[in-house]
């Protein structure tokens, strides 16, 4: 089982869906939220809203996601953990293009990292509709 204590800050990042249910907006439809998190600190470095009909952010949005996270840490990690079966196309290709090793793991292995973030997100957005 993976644990934040196994990592140094900026050694590894985690890409995951922050929300467990779609975020619904009146004007723009429904979205999922992808997050990049530092594995050691569990700090969310960047997020992006992804239309519900897409399995990953676009190539441009993925590059922005990594750029924002990199600016936050002023460097890239060596490893990106992703849930097995998720983010295998655009996110994985961009991560590898930037020199990261992409490591798919069962999502249950990531819960020690992402569980609290998901819970906080759910508590904050549950039942809300954004009018953008």
Number of distinct beta strands = 6
**Contiguous uncertain segments of 5+ residues:** none
| Proportion in helices | 25-40%
Strand content: 25-35%
How many domains would you count in the coordinates?
1
Q: Find the structural class using helix and strand composition.
A: alpha/beta
The CATH architecture is 2-Layer Sandwich
Largest sheet: 6 strands, mixed
Provide structural commentary.
By secondary structure, the chain is α/β, with parallel strands linked by helices. It has one domain (4-125): Nucleotidyltransferase, domain 5 (2-Layer Sandwich), CATH 3.30.420. The protein is built from 3 helices and 6 strands, in the order E-E-E-E-H-E-H-E-H. It is globular, with a radius of gyration of 14 Å.
Q: What is the topological layout?
A:
Layout: E1 12-17, E2 23-25, E3 29-38, E4 44-51, H1 59-73, E5 79-83, H2 90-97, E6 101-105, H3 111-125
Parallel strand pairs: 1-5, 5-6
Antiparallel strand pairs: 1-3, 2-3, 3-4
Helix pairs in contact: 1-2
Concise summary:
Helices cover 29% and strands 28% of the residues. The chain is of the alpha/beta class and 132 residues long. Strands 1, 2, 3, 4, 5 and 6 form a 6-stranded mixed beta sheet that branches.
Keywords:
3 helices; 29% helix; six-stranded mixed beta sheet; alpha/beta; 6 strands
């Amino acid at each position: 089982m993976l644990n934040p204590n196994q990592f140094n800050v900026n050694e590894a990042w985690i890409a995951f869906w922050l929300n467990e249910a779609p975020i619904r907006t009146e004007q723009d439809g429904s979205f999922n939220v992808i997050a990049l998190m530092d594995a050691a600190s569990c700090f969310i470095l960047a997020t992006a809203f992804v239309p519900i009909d897409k399995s990953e952010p676009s190539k441009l949005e993925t590059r922005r996601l990594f750029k924002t996270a990199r600016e936050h840490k002023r460097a890239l990690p060596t490893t990106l953990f992703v849930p097995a079966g998720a983010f295998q196309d655009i996110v994985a290709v961009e991560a590898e293009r930037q020199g990261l090793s992409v490591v798919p793991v069962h999502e249950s292995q990531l819960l020690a990292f992402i569980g609290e973030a998901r819970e906080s997100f759910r508590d904050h957005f549950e039942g809300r509709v954004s009018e953008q």
